[in-house]
């Protein structure tokens, strides 16, 4: 591999580590570490929201699917994220007004200890899989770029993303996200004209790629598009890696505008990897690149292989830095989410009720390292589809928690009984469909999970309503959580 390419990517990795070190100097409290002191403005909000959700599935995964079965319709994988941000434009300011640090903390202060604990477990476990998925995507690029073994690449990526995340918390993650978002967009945009030139122009692509691949809904069915929208809305609404940005917003305006700008970024970006997938298919069909080269290690290597064969070293370096940015910007958020939940909602509530602010921050950092180790192991052993891994992780946490979390901000009768039933039975329903123990009209697992959640949440909340008849949160008391209403700001 050209030395220029390696130097660009190494420089990028070193900059990420420096940002982590720099951000660590700005951290003085646990609130600084977990929610960046609640000082994020609209631009920082937009950059970190978009970068968090535009990850391995949205770059390597979309190119893979566009090259394969989905064609141009693979763009919907990212477009549906943009649609989701339009909903969060409405809900985001409400989430911020709760002034909590984590989703399980909201459940605990709104519904009680048991729902808070269950939510912490349901939210924590999928973050390991989500982190692993992003490490996989980053390692693929590093492996192809340098010739290092896949296993060595996993170890390098895991170390870098863990180091800067642990050093600077959400401040580090936010700053790196903004830098990474710029690199993602620039790298992918620059790749298009060079690969298109190599393919002989767009007219050549159209002539060599089957017409059905250009259908906007042909490869990915309407059913799949709707499933993605439902999955993203449910998952982003309760996902700590996304919702923490709203908790960190400096005011309601920042939360609202950040969502709008992030949605626009998703709508713009969505077509770039899809087009690159079609160009790759055209190049293969013209015999310019042997399909066996791409399929040797799996179709997820399509974009790195395309870059190496069609672009000058500087562009390859920027593209690879951009792809690694896309995946690392999601991995760091997942790590921070896992660490925040364990320290804030398990350690401080059940293990060390008298833990100091600094101790909780230290536990957060240690947990992030432990989660990184587990995620690295999964990345080293996983052979499945990257997007399938992400979809299941998204779905599992959303099945039972979405309705109690969202409606808890609006519906005064939402109760402990309805929430407990929703959390347990909704999550179980997702797993049963995912593992094919039962079938639900051949729909994705999220649909049965949300149906079971809705029936149990509404039913039991009406039968056993919230006695406070209020959406206000109780004061946090780590010795004994009492339901003493205090205004939710």
What's the arrangement of secondary structure elements?
Layout: H1 3-24, H2 30-35, H3 42-53, H4 57-67, H5 76-97, H6 103-111, H7 113-146, H8 150-199, H9 202-208, H10 222-238, H11 240-248, H12 252-269, H13 271-285, H14 291-295, H15 302-310, H16 313-351, H17 357-381, H18 386-408, H19 416-434, H20 445-463, E1 473-474, E2 485-486
Antiparallel strand pairs: 1-2
Helix pairs in contact: 1-8, 1-16, 3-8, 3-11, 3-12, 3-16, 4-13, 5-10, 5-11, 5-12, 6-7, 7-8, 7-16, 7-17, 7-18, 7-19, 8-13, 8-16, 8-17, 9-13, 10-18, 11-16, 16-17, 18-19, 18-20, 19-20
Index terms:
disordered C terminus; single chain; Sodium/glucose cotransporter; membrane; 2 strands; mainly alpha; 76% helix; Putative sodium:solute symport protein; transmembrane; two-stranded antiparallel ribbon; 489 residues; globular; transport
- What's the β-strand tally? 2
Number of helices: 20
Q: Which stretches are poorly predicted, pLDDT < 50 over at least 5 residues?
A: 480-489
CATH topology grouping: Sodium/glucose cotransporter
CATH class: Mainly Alpha
Fourth-tier CATH superfamily name = Sodium/glucose cotransporter
The share of residues in helices is over 70%
- Quick one: biggest sheet? 2 strands, antiparallel
Rg estimate, integer Å: 22 Å
Structural class: mainly alpha
Number of domains: 1
Shape: globular
Average pLDDT works out at: 88
């Amino acid at each position: 591999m050209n030395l220029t390419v390696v130097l660009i990517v190494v420089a990028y990795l070193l900059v990420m580590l420096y940002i982590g070190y720099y951000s660590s100097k700005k951290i003085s409290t646990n609130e600084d570490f977990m929610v960046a002191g609640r000082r994020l403005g609209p631009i920082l909000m937009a950059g970190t929201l978009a970068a968090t959700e535009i990850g391995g599935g949205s770059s390597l995964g979309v190119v893979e699917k566009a090259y394969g079965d989905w064609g141009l319709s693979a763009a919907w994988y990212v477009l549906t994220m943009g649609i989701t941000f339009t909903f969060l434009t409405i809900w985001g300011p409400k989430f911020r007004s709760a002034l909590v640090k984590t989703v399980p903390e909201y459940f605990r202060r709104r519904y009680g200890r048991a729902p808070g604990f269950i939510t912490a477990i349901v939210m924590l476990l999928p973050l390991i899989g989500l982190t692993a998925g992003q490490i996989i995507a980053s390692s693929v690029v590093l492996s192809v770029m340098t010739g290092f073994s896949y296993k060595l690449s996993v170890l390098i990526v895991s170390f870098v993303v863990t180091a800067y995340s642990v050093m600077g918390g959400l401040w580090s993650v936010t700053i790196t996200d903004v830098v990474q978002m710029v690199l993602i967009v620039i790298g992918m945009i620059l790749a298009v004209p060079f690969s298109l030139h190599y393919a002989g122009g767009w007219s050549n692509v159209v002539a060599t790629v089957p017409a059905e691949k250009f259908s906007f809904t042909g490869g990915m069915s309407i059913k799949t598009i709707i499933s993605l929208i439902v999955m993203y809305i449910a998952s982003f609404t309760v996902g700590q890696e996304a919702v923490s940005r709203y908790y960190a917003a400096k005011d309601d305006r920042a939360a609202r505008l950040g969502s709008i700008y992030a949605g626009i970024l998703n709508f713009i970006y969505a077509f770039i990897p899809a087009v690159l997938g079609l160009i790759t298919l055209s190049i293969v069909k013209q015999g310019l690149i042997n399909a066996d080269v791409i399929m040797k290690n799996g179709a997820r290597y399509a974009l790195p292989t395309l870059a190496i064969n069609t672009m000058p070293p500087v562009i390859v370096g920027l593209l690879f830095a951009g792809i690694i940015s896309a995946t690392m910007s999601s991995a760091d958020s997942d790590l921070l989410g896992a660490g925040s939940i364990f320290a804030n909602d398990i350690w401080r509530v059940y293990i060390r009720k008298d833990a100091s602010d600094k101790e909780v921050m230290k536990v957060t950092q240690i947990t992030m390292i432990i989660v990184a180790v587990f995620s690295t192991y999964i990345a080293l052993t996983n052979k499945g589809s990257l997007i399938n891994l992400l979809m299941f992780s998204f779905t599992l946490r959303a099945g039972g928690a979405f309705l109690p979390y969202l409606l808890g901000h609006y519906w005064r009768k939402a109760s402990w009984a309805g929430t407990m039933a929703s959390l347990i039975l909704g999550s179980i329903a997702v797993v049963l469909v995912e593992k094919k123990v039962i079938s639900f009209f051949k729909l994705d697992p999220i649909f049965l999970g949300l149906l079971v959640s809705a029936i149990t949440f509404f039913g039991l909340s009406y039968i056993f309503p919230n006695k406070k008849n209020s959406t206000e949160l109780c004061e946090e008391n780590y010795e004994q959580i009492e339901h003493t209403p205090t205004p939710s700001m």
